[in-house]
Amino acid sequence: VTIDGTPQWRPFDHNAADAVDPAEDWQFFTAEEAATVEAITERLIPADELSISGREAGCAIFIDRQLAGFFGTSERLYMQGPFAHGTPEQGDQSALTPRERYRVGIAALDDYCATRHQTRFAELAGDAQDEILSGLERGEIPLEGIEAQEFFSLIHQNTMEGFFADPVYGGNRDMVSWRMLGFPGARYDYRDYVEKHNQKLDFEPLSIAGRSGWRTQG
Amino acid sequence: QGATEYDQVEKGRYLATLGDCAACHTAPGGKPFAGGVAINTPFGKLVAPNITPDVDTGIGKWTFDDFQRVMSEGRGPGGYHLYGAMPYTAYTKVSEEDNRAIWTYLQTLDPVDHLVVANQLPFPFNQRFTLWGWNLINFDKGEFKPNPEKSAEWNRGAYLVEGLGHCGTCHTPKNLIGGDKSSQFLEGSVIDDWYAPNITADPHKGIGAWSEQDLVDYLSTGKNRFDIASGPMAEEVEHSSQYWNEDDLRAVAIYLKDGRNADAQAPTPLAAEDPRMVAGAEIYADRCAGCHTPNGAGVEGLFPRLADTALVNGDSAASLMRVVLAGSRAGATDAAPTAPSMPAFAWNLSDEEISNVLTFVRNTWGNAAAPVSPSDVAEMRETLESH
Amino acid sequence: MPTKLPATDAVVVGLGWAGAIIANELVDEGLDVIGFERGPWRDTAKDFNIASVPDELRYNARQELMLRTAQNTCTMRNDVSQTALPMRSWGSFHPGNGTGGAGNHWAGITFRFQPEDFRLHSHLTERYGRQAVEAANLTLQDWGTDWEEMEPYYASFERVAGISGKAGNLNGTLQEGGNPFEGVRSIEYPTPPLKQPYGPTLFAEAAREMGYHPFPVPSALVSEAYTNPLGVTMGPCTFCGFCTNYGCANYSKASAITTVLPALIRKSNFTAKTNCEVLRVTLDPSGTRATGIVYIDASGREWEQPAELVIVAAFTLENARLMLLSGVGEPYDPVTQRGTTGRNYAYQTANSVQLFFDDKNFNPFIGAGAVGMGIDEFNNDNFDHTGLGFFGGGSIRVTPIGAAPIANRPVPPGTPTWGKQWKRATVDNYLSTMSIGCEASSYSQRGNYLSLDPNYSDRLGRPLLRMTFDFPENDLRMAQYCTDRVAEIAQRMNPRQMVEKPMKGHWNSGPYQSSHVVGGFIMGSDPSVSSVNKYLQVWDVPNLFVVGASAFPQNPGYNPTGTVGALAYKAADAIRRLYLKHPGEMIA
């Protein structure tokens, strides 16, 4: 693009990410896969007095939509081979995209559960699920086609992302995690607060999509 | 046609800048004066034609008399009527001597072979003879006559504002068929979905609170203590008024400051408790205050002041809705190259939300003006999107 | 076969800080300049819309503003015994892309280096003796310039960027509240210091009590509306806390797009070509004159743009890579230590101490890439290194950058990573934890260098840049020492718990440490061990200037960009005042 002079403003121009419609059907997962992921997110972030669970907050929907998009395909990343095992310092060198990691990992996990517990992961009791997740985290459970820790760390990362990201991505329903932490969300002006030291500020959190206080009341 | 001698060319160039012919007759990035972009009129689109001296597609075959007739009568060679989008209702005030100089300057342009079909109006508006009736109602022909009661500066200002400056083209309210309501000269009008504010001496809706220097600053740099020019006015400043000489700018300021409505009263603002005001205040804090500052003072030269400014208090909230919906880039001048932009919020704020925040803005910090309704915003949204 | 275009006076490769500054100066000199930028044109209101930019997932987690590794990345290894592998996502550093470069998403801490830094090797030798310096086993070098030469250009950069801060040494007079260790400065900071959040305030109190001299961290986030000498206006920072790795919605963060480009793009003799990646600098057959550059446009067509003058300002990594790809200079060989292209690559040694409190609320979401308080008592050579077994030091400071919760959920060591306990700990510590950082020096050593990778290439088949780097023993010792000093201050602040995090072990390409990659095409006065002279002019290719942190022979305990900007002004001024009088010759 050749640019000479201040570029003209193009009406409506913006560069926002598309918001997710949580009401839509799964876009990447099969129903079975979704059930497994929902079960995992339910355990990683359990419901308690602090908040609803990761599943309830929409983490599985979040992950599904992430996998349906560029994150799932690694399309932005350098994915040329050769793919070698490197040192820990050389970071992630897997040839698998996140989509592949989930597809392979969930299948392997359910296989593992079928073999060990004659049922799918989602059907297991909470404690049993926790145990398996811990085993994956420690790398003690062998999975077919993918390193257990690689699979666990990805789904752990994505669950946390879903729980704490802006609700427009499908997780963090009603900004639940932000309310829990006291994080005000997508606010942009703290000039009047920066010098209010050591005070609780109690902001109503704000999403990219706004908040209820914006609507005319009554 | 006259020779393109230095004195006439220089004079004509300045006058063409005063008249901002390029605003309409030059397309962005296009060859100078080879034809502009489509201008929206109440009846459809018109394109300002090629006025370079190209024989086939420009005015290369015209004589000065043809040109004088356009400027003074709004009629083309052979007598066809021009549409009022060419502001001849203002240019009619321009003296023949000044027109001669503009004409001479136009002769020095590189002729550009670019055919412009000006008339892109649908039937029946594409029938030029219907303009005859338009002129009966909307057109007072005649060169500017100085007012002997007033100073020479005032008269120069009047000549510029009423004539070449054609300020009224945008700032004077229009009747149903697009003609000026002369009794409301400069009281504000909506043009191309922008509100050209009231620039009478009204202290609330107009520029009554501005000093002469404020006016000069605004016209010469596109910004001043109160405001940054956007949209059409940004273009006016960028292409035209930043190049006006100091004397002319001051003359315009003197004339405008001496305008009507200096004694106008401000209306009472909406109550802060009004639910629309309450919601609007929230939105303002979350989405607007970061730039326009919590007290609406803005940042001089960067984020326009919203508190107590004519544009915000104007009869029409068109510009306000437009910039919030579609965003806008401030004009850049040599003195102020920043060209910051108001971001677009159409994708992010609903009609109701925009109406609330604008209602809040129009009734806070000393502002007072009619609330904006969600349906106004919806209509503006649709209009802008259909362009 | 690239299509040849009409020649122009000068081309600038990269429209980040360095490129935009030089382009603007050359344009003002009357040259016709074309600026090439591989990424898009960035516009604040469009790209950093206040409603879309505060989005941690998109900008921080998914690296929206960074160069796509699919377009270009580098490979890394810790030493020559390993095979380098590609960095498939960014981790340790975050290269920029598009007009503004990394400046769009930088943090904005804008230090000047200290006068001694420009003659570090001489200085240390004078102070500690040759033997001590040799024992450190480093390849420290002088820069070939000095404070007197650099100071005016620091001032120019600070003025264009509106840097906020408090002078410590104004024309030789120490100033209360400023940094007493800074070199003599000719101007006060253009904008006053930012307001301070709670964490930095606590830290400064403790430091002051301990006899140190805390000062507001100099910042490229302006504290009030500011119009720079180019007429471009910036608005005050609102402490939004979506700053590092994000673009600023408010025109508050200085970057090429908020300070230089608005004025530059309007000048008739400047043209920007965006989405155009420069592939190489073309040389005449003798190799002593650059004839222009070759670039590829968005439709995949290759073009040759001849020019009288070529400025490469494509950030450290691409500067070095372009020189290697274009055959400029001899590639550095770590075994023989011959060759200069790729030599003396260095980084930054990041350390910190985390403080957990029970009774404090830091409102950590209030923050900015560069707001905070720091001390310089343990930086560089501000303390006596005799007998310490290392040289160097770090900038100790508290700079709350915001606390978006995907990445910012401090919990004490040993906390589970999920489940109920994790959640409880997360909530308990979110508001009441702070951290003191120590951005420390990184000294070059023989085995750290940049070269072309033999195995991996980009989409066009051109070798990727290979980075061979590990922390020198010297730096790890320094890290431990300085972190201990930080811990002493932390202790005085009386936290419930404190976690020391000195840099340890090997350089890991995964966790973010800093984007302060420096060296590889360094400046100096001796062509046998440097690539450019003190005007950033390439030895033996007089019409080629390579500008950026690539010119640093080693890195002090400061962030680089103030110096990058100063070098850009220095090079531009040399071109304007000296080079153009005798084009095609090395500046005497």
From TrEMBL, chain C:
It comes from the Bacteria. It holds the Pfam family GMC_oxred_N. GO terms for molecular function: flavin adenine dinucleotide binding; oxidoreductase activity, acting on CH-OH group of donors. The keyword Oxidoreductase applies. Its cofactor is FAD. InterPro entries: FAD/NAD-bd_sf, GMC_OxRdtase_N, GMC_OxRtase_C, P2Ox-like. Residues 448-568 form the Glucose-methanol-choline oxidoreductase C-terminal domain. Keywords: FAD, Flavoprotein, Oxidoreductase. Residues 236-335 form the Glucose-methanol-choline oxidoreductase N-terminal domain. Belongs to the GMC oxidoreductase family. This is GMC family oxidoreductase. It comes from Halotalea alkalilenta.
